[in-house]
From TrEMBL:
<dbReference type="GO" id="GO:0008670">
    <property type="term" value="F:2,4-dienoyl-CoA reductase (NADPH) activity"/>
</dbReference>
<dbReference type="InterPro" id="IPR036291">
    <property type="entry name" value="NAD(P)-bd_dom_sf"/>
</dbReference>
<dbReference type="InterPro" id="IPR002347">
    <property type="entry name" value="SDR_fam"/>
</dbReference>
<dbReference type="GO" id="GO:0016628">
    <property type="term" value="F:oxidoreductase activity, acting on the CH-CH group of donors, NAD or NADP as acceptor"/>
</dbReference>
<dbReference type="Pfam" id="PF13561">
    <property type="entry name" value="adh_short_C2"/>
</dbReference>
<protein>
    <recommendedName>
        <fullName>2,4-dienoyl-CoA reductase [(3E)-enoyl-CoA-producing]</fullName>
        <ecNumber>1.3.1.124</ecNumber>
    </recommendedName>
</protein>
<keyword id="KW-0560">Oxidoreductase</keyword>
<dbReference type="GO" id="GO:0005777">
    <property type="term" value="C:peroxisome"/>
</dbReference>
<dbReference type="GO" id="GO:0006631">
    <property type="term" value="P:fatty acid metabolic process"/>
</dbReference>
<keyword id="KW-0521">NADP</keyword>
<dbReference type="InterPro" id="IPR045017">
    <property type="entry name" value="DECR2-like"/>
</dbReference>
<dbReference type="GO" id="GO:0009062">
    <property type="term" value="P:fatty acid catabolic process"/>
</dbReference>
Amino acid sequence: MGRRKQVLDSAVAALRSLGISAFGFEGDVRKQEDASSVVDSTFNKLGSLDILVNAAAGNFLVSAEDLSPNGFRTVMDIDSVGTFTMCHQALKYLKKGGPGRNSLTGGTIINISATLHYTAAWYQIHVSAAKAAVDAITRNLALEWGADHDIRVNGIAPGPIQGTPGLSKLAPEEINSKIREDMPLYRIGEKWDIAMAALYLASDAGKYVNGTTIIADGGMWLSSPRRLPKDAVKQLSRVVEKRSRNLPVGAPKSKL
């Protein structure tokens, strides 16, 4: 599920090339009607819904004083409200005894989080707040829906991952070397690392894990030095914006 058809089509084609029966649905997690439509369409196409992964996110570098309330609200809507909206709409299919369920157990939910809020992060107050809310959603749903519906709810908190829009937007080549210096393992993660964490949580290997967020960042969250002075953020953001114009609605482009 995503807002951009071209990105969806590319992802679907890549999965189908591996022999996977994949479908893409356009939708915005901020809109309840889109969430409902996509969840129902998934069930109609596949006959069941067993795993929900909430990975939608909005992010950009900005100091707190330059961030507009609308920009803050937009990221909260995508990351935290969007996560809850998707969970809420998928509940009827994920819960024990729901439509299409062939077992006496419920499905599983994986929420993609971050480590920014474990301490504090420079120029990331909006995302830190949003991901803290995502972690709270994970724990509370694990408690309530685990007891009531036998649904396991867990999270993954990735560090910087090679080949992702997030890394190119938030840590372009200008500061990539500094990131590696700060990481205990001296390397940036791979998509495979996150995929394996998700596979563990979604499979029977993790069937007794509930309400936990797995940190997969090479230990980077243990140390968070200030890499850039405040004034440099504005210049860096201009460089990043040239590479990607897909900032969330309401992001203060004129102030970055």
